[in-house]
Amino acid sequence: xxxxxSRPQRRDVPPGQLLIHGAWVDAAAGEQMAVSDPTTEAQITxxxxxxxxxxxxxxxxxxxxxxxxxxxxxxxxxxxxxxFRMADLLDERADDFAxxxxxxxxxxxxxxxxxxxxxxxxxxxxxxxxxxxxMDGGYxxxxxxxxxxxxxxxxxGVVAAITPWNFPLALTCSKVAPALAAGNTVIHKPASDTxxxxxxxxxxxxDAGVPAGVYNLITGPGGVIGDALVRSKKVDKIAFTxxxxxxxxxxxxxxxxxxxxxxxxxxxxxNIIFADADLDAALQAAFWGIFWNKGExxxxxxxxxxxxxxxxxxxxxxxxxxxxxxxxxxxxxxxxLGPIATRAEYDKILMYVQAGVDSSARLVAGGGAxxxxxxxxxxxxxxxxxxxxxxKISREEIFGPVVPVIPFEDEDDAIRxxxxxxxxxxxxxxxxxxxxxxxxxxxxxxxxxxxxTWHKYHPNxxxxxxxxxxxxxxxxxxxxxxxxxxxxxxxxxxxx
Length: 496
Ligand code: NAP
Fold this sequence. Notes:
Layout: E1 18-20, E2 23-25, E3 32-36, E4 43-48, H1 52-68, H2 76-92, H3 94-105, H4 109-134, E5 138-141, E6 147-155, E7 158-162, H5 168-181, E8 185-189, H6 196-208, E9 215-217, H7 222-231, E10 237-241, H8 244-254, E11 260-264, E12 270-273, H9 279-291, E13 303-307, H10 308-324, H11 343-357, E14 362-365, E15 382-385, H12 392-395, E16 402-408, H13 411-419, E17 423-424, E18 426-430, H14 434-443, E19 448-451, E20 466-467, E21 470-471, H15 476-481, E22 484-492
Parallel strand pairs: 7-8, 7-10, 8-9, 10-11, 12-13, 12-18, 13-16, 15-16, 18-19
Antiparallel strand pairs: 1-2, 3-4, 5-6, 6-22, 11-21, 14-15, 17-20
Helix pairs in contact: 1-7, 2-4, 2-6, 3-4, 4-5, 9-10
Bound molecules: NADP nicotinamide-adenine-dinucleotide phosphate (NAP).
């Protein structure tokens, strides 16, 4: 498979351990979990299968580091210096991170290097700057002239970041960077299927000089160690990205300890394509909107709404693009769609393909699950035309390279269809009429609206959902709010 000498190669990854209080350790019960490569279907390595006792050790380490350690008392500039070092180390080790993500979850190496890695290091730099600029408070006056009000921004305490398998590194950095910048201590629990970049990021934290106990990593089943984090009194905040079903559980289970929570959950995002759009650009936005990272993207443009007058032409050209999509090894620079990250997801997506075939919609591209060199969890870029918004494939999050294309008549019809979903994560409008674009952007119930584009991200741009897609924001100055709390100090100056 790795025949081309200049292309990145698979590499051996040593077995992973838990990082607790600055030391790499084994799980108390001595159990491991296998990590496998969806392209070769071979085992890559093992990681520790932590249990409740390990979670307690990590919680104690993070709690003691917060209460007694130097981290929260460091000047903002000193914390920022460490975050800048983490950003530099991420960039220096970009190749290793990209190969790990390609092997672990099938993300194309080139996408990771060109898009994900700069975003991840950018998040650390951005929040280092935010800590210096926005962690201080204010000095205010009151009704009474001798009374002054001092406001002070403080960290929350112990933050547990529970992350999914689809953008393992990016969705960890978007939590860890603001959490550390604000002076919190962190426990990271990555998805069991994709722990490899989490191990490398924890090593970056150690090498950058994050003090012992401030950054902890535990790998193991969410239902055990994730649950222990959510229920612990000593964990102050859960920063969660994952499915809406698990998110709802976490909200319930965190209620007894009044947990601060941010919830980045699922989506079924509408991409609205008007007849006046630049058709070639709209086709590209629709193609990458759904098929980037093989559709394993929470903000994928997973419902394509097309104005009736261009519907047939759009479907014909879009199906042709999908049929030409290049499936392959994510380490091959020519690959557009790598393999599906896990066997369970692969089976689930194929179930949705069958639901589409069994529905009133028309399969116009894909639907197959080819092997490459006899192996791999590949699914073709799959398009169902003449779909309606009530179909299973239009309502449920498929989380794969499968998309329904639905016709609409006018602006009101487009908005009605776009908002007719439980979710509200992202959306897009492709049109040459800026007034219409901005008018409709106001009416869409979603946290992100992309106008004449898709998949744009920046550390400065708040990101998060409406409705069942969750609450709280990652990225942007707004994110710091989710990792801090405000204290108000009243001072009597006397001399009234
Ligand atoms: P998931 O099954 O909800 O798992 C997410 C994380 O939660 C994993 O680390 C998992 O651990 C852990 N977990 C599972 N059960 C738990 C429990 N009872 N208590 C505490 N933690 C628990 O989601 P996924 O399948 O990994 O990710 C795909 C989902 O994430 C999709 O719905 C997608 O839309 C969503 N997503 C949202 C965003 C966003 O920003 N809104 C971004 C990306 C993905 P284990 O792996 O050990 O089970």
